[in-house]
Write a structure and sequence with these properties.
- Pfam families: TAL_FSA.
- Strand 7, helix 10 and strand 8 (about 270-275) form a beta-alpha-beta unit.
- The chain has a single domain (about 5-440), classed as Aldolase class I (TIM Barrel, Alpha-Beta Barrel), CATH 3.20.20.
- It has helices at about 30-35, 40-50, 80-90, 105-110, 120-130, 135-145, 150-175, 195-205, 225-230, 245-260, 280-290, 295-300, 305-320, 320-330, 370-380, 390-400, 405-440; strands at about 5-10, 25, 65, 90-95, 180-185, 210-215, 235-240, 270-275, 335-340, 365.
- It contains 17 helices and ten strands.
- With about 450 residues, the protein is of the alpha/beta class.
- Helix 9 (about 225-230) runs parallel beside helix 10.
Length: about 450
């Protein structure tokens, strides 16, 4: 069984709600030591030996050690973890919700069963602003005349490309079904339909990796963007989904995009829909506490997973029937549900609350360090996502009867999420400007 031991935790500068999802830890291992580790995947070891990563190894503000017990002897397979069981027995892909340099730190996580990576502006804000690993490349970029925002994207693209290389064996082994790395368009474009389309095309082109997902927020202005980007044959991770109504619009945008693509082979255009969970409870719990009745208080901590369970029912409904079957004939793959924001915000709740009850086939669970550590250590694997559909429906309805407006919950969390990512993005650009000034790279 793999275990993750946290060595130290430093406070993050970001005060936004996403910072709690940041998952900011890193595994400290040198590339040299990794070459002598047993690899579950022989291709991964070959890949490390043949790949040059320019990023220097530097201390990070949060350290994790991933220890994978294995039989003695070089090349021996590591012991299985619950993450392997999650994928092989239940068809759910465990992904890691974090990324920073050196990306070779991801290799022990891949060994432990991680099958993809998600990132967002808040993750990069933390990674770049708290690590010296980016200094050399940043210095070269500014000396070459790059403006601060252009330099930021160069730093991000380098990390995404290197991570994509590490996960490419999984992508190849699953024929494009897994092994993705996600990178988000600028959060400043959340209300800009055409700007988002152009940004997604540009990111897809410059990253130039088959297993990259371009993240687009599920804001109303970006729903048409999703359709257009999919129609252009670009794979998309749709993020910041907080309600069933918006989720259905996201599915329709994916289907519309596939139909509009004109492609005879749709097998390489894939998508995930990132449905956020823990933040739903954070907001709804506050509303329930304000109501204050025993019935209301008894529903705390139940809203998020109930809505997620109903989202899975919607997923099954939409990806069946004549319309979908026509697309399947052209090689189309289902837009998998991805559970995001899976770290527990209320310490009174079980630490696997947003992982264990949401296990089901054709889904993804992207976990920050806290959730990943907990599930590897004591998570149980079994199909749970649709084990109590009637109960989920009952909770959802009971909340409505108490006056909880699901439309308000979704729109409020979307506003908070977009705003938080914008603040992280702006904060990072400010810190990069300060770094450039401190290095005397910018003339006044």
């Amino acid at each position: 069984m793999a275990t993750i031991s946290k060595l130290s935790t430093a406070a993050t500068a970001s005060a936004s709600w996403v910072s709690a999802d940041l998952h900011g830890g890193r595994t400290r291992s040198s590339s040299l030591s990794l070459l002598h580790r047993p690899f579950a995947n022989a291709n991964a070891r070959k890949l490390l030996l043949s790949t040059t990563f320019s990023a220097p190894v530097a201390p990070h503000s949060v350290s994790l050690i991933v220890r994978c017990s294995s039989a003695s002897g070089n090349g021996s397979p590591i012991k299985r973890t619950t993450l392997h069981d999650l994928y092989e027995k239940q068809g759910q892909s465990p992904w890691y919700d974090n990324l920073c340099r050196p990306v070779t730190d991801l290799i022990p996580l891949i060994e432990s069963g991680v099958r993809g990576v998600t990132s967002n502006p808040a993750i990069f804000q933390k990674a770049i602003s708290t690590s010296n690993a980016y200094n050399d490349q940043f210095r070269e970029l500014v000396q070459a005349g790059k403006d601060i925002e252009s330099a930021y994207w160069e730093l991000v693209i380098k990390d995404i490309q290197d991570a994509c290389k590490l996960f490419e064996p999984i992508y190849d082994e699953t024929d494009g079904g897994d092994g993705y790395v996600s990178v988000e368009v600028s959060p400043r474009l959340a209300d800009d339909t055409q700007g988002t389309i152009e940004a997604a095309k540009w990111l897809h082109k410059v990253v130039s990796r088959p297993n990259v997902y371009i993240k687009i927020p599920a804001t109303a202005p970006c729903i048409p963007s999703i359709k257009e980007v999919i129609a252009n044959g670009i794979s998309v991770n749709v993020t910041l989904i907080f309600s069933l109504a918006r989720y259905e619009a996201v599915i329709d945008a994916y289907l519309d995009g596939l139909e509009a693509s004109g492609l005879s082979d749709l097998s390489r255009v894939t998508s995930v829909a990132s449905f956020f969970v823990s933040r739903v409870d954070t907001l709804v719990d506050k509303m329930l506490e304000k109501i204050g009745t025993p019935e209301a208080l008894n529903l705390r901590g139940k809203a998020a997973n109930a809505q997620a369970g109903l989202a899975y029912q919607l997923y099954q409904k939409k990806f069946s029937g004549p319309r979908w079957e026509a697309l399947v004939k052209k090689g189309a793959k289902k837009q998998r549900l991805l559970w995001a924001s899976t770290s527990v915000k209320n310490p009174a709740y079980p630490d696997t609350l947003y992982v264990a009850p949401l296990i089901g086939p054709d889904t993804v669970s992207t976990m920050p360090d806290q959730a990943l550590q907990a599930f590897i250590d004591h998570g149980t694997v079994g199909r749970t996502i649709d084990a109590n559909v009637s109960e989920a429906e009952g909770i959802y309805s009971a909340l409505e009867k108490l006056g909880i407006d699901w439309g308000y919950v979704g729109s409020q969390l979307e506003v908070e999420g977009v705003d938080s990512f914008k603040k992280s993005f702006d904060s990072l650009l400010d810190s990069l400007q300060e770094k450039a000034n401190s290095l005397k790279l910018v003339s006044h």
